[in-house]
Amino acid sequence: MHNLRFALVFGLMAAACGGTDPSASGVFPAEGFAGRDLRVEISGDATSWTDGATVTFGAGVTVSNVTVASPTDLFADLKIDASAAAGLQDVTVASNGSVTLKQAFSVTSPVEAQFTGGVEQGGRPLFTIINHDFDNPFDLTADASGALANLTVTGPAGTDFQVDTQSSTAYALQGVVFIDGNAAAGMLTVASGPTASQTSSVIANVDIKARAATPLTSGTQAMGTIANVGDTLWYSLAAPAGLVHLGLGVSSSTASPAIGILEGGSYNHIVGGTYAVVPAETVNIVVLDTKGVAGYNVNLLPVAEALASVAEPAAPADDTTQSAVVPAAIPFQVTNATISGAADLDYTKLVIDAAHASKKIHIVAQSADNSTDTAVDVTTNATTSAIGGEYDGGAQGGSDGGFTCQFTGACGEDIVVGPLAAGTYYVKVEAGALGYDASFTDYSLLVWFE
Taking the C-alpha atoms of 225, 231, 237 and 241 in order, what is their torsion angle to the nearest 10 degrees? Predict the structure, then answer.
């Protein structure tokens, strides 16, 4: 009986002393933003933590200032790297043994990117970058030009994120991103705040999809569809050295697509909109909507032609119809042209043969510095009034509407005349009545049949 009583007491003592294994029971807060600092509390169960305890939170998280408040409670400072991988991390405390709390702490991105339109090579989707970190609002301070002084958005190589300052807020950036034809998936970073105290927020991956450009053939119409807001059509054209001009038709009266002609598939190398002078290499052509309209068809007619080129003689050599510049053929380009003064007249001779009498003439006086204001007329001689046609508007029946600017930013007069009967005509270029400035005098003249 004595032995039985001893065994019973011993068993009860063993149960009372050794029934719970040491463990970590919780982390508070249980999540933190990448790129931020955070102080956390870790609680334990049946632990015996003492000064000198060490804590680990996984890759990308640096732990410092570990303070043991009791054998079952400690505090620690975390520094989470801006590029730390999002997801759950194990938390380990080493002090009088080691305990691990699996999947106990979540690293999250402080920002989230949402896109409208195809996130693909050659794309131009709309974006919204949402800020989930209410302690660090986006710094929308503007400089003297109105641009953001303390905020930059940097995407993967080959992308250009352009923030719309008018519609953006401290917790939501809005704008468009231009995606080059060779761009690939990668990180997106938002740096916000003065240089000395910037906060970086990283989105680990912008998934840019590969896309092959649809080949175009000169003189052959192609059809595409802008299916969704923010979508683009992406084409390639193997063009001879010379002029590329594009006819565009749309199935929607509310749509307003823009066209860009790009060298090398890069939006930084847009050389034209509906027309461009290009080298003998393959160029890309992008069609995008500027009104937020979707679900319509686009008909695109590309034409690539050899281009005659002639330099304007020194003034006043072409100031009369008798001394007009005479190009060798149409289409042609007059280079190094100058409106040397408010009274300067520049004449270029047009000879329309019977084979082209049914066609219209497209004339562009493009500012070489995007500031030269010109006026363009077509006449039969120096004394007749301008011939009526499809003009962009302006004085004297010709075009002097200030500037017509393309998607590329190239500005100038852009008119369509005709069809003209077979015969001899003259393109007259003079100083624009709306804004001629003697400091800006250079332009080029492009003429082709349409």
Answer: 130
Share of the chain above pLDDT 90, in %: 67
Residue 374: its pLDDT value, please? 86
> What are 342's two structure tokens?
């408010």
State whether residue 4 is helix, strand or coil. helix
Listed in sequence order, the residues at least 6 apart from 324 whose beta carbon sits closer than 8 Å to its beta carbon are 318, 347, 348, 349, 426
Query: Longest C-alpha distance within the chain, in Å?
Result: 139
Whether 281 and 247 have beta carbons less than 8 Å apart is answered as: no
* Confidence band, pLDDT 50/70/90 cuts, at residue 19: low
Q: What does 155-181 look like in DSSP terms, one character per residue?
A: -STTEEEEE-TTT-BTTEEEEEEEE-T
Contact (Cβ atoms closer than 8 angstroms) between residue 130 and residue 114: yes
Residue with tokens 């509906």: 274
Q: What is the DSSP string of 48-59?
A: ---TT-EEE--T
Q: Could you tell me if 104 and 88 are in contact, meaning their C-beta atoms sit under 8 angstroms apart?
A: yes
Residue 52 pLDDT = 96
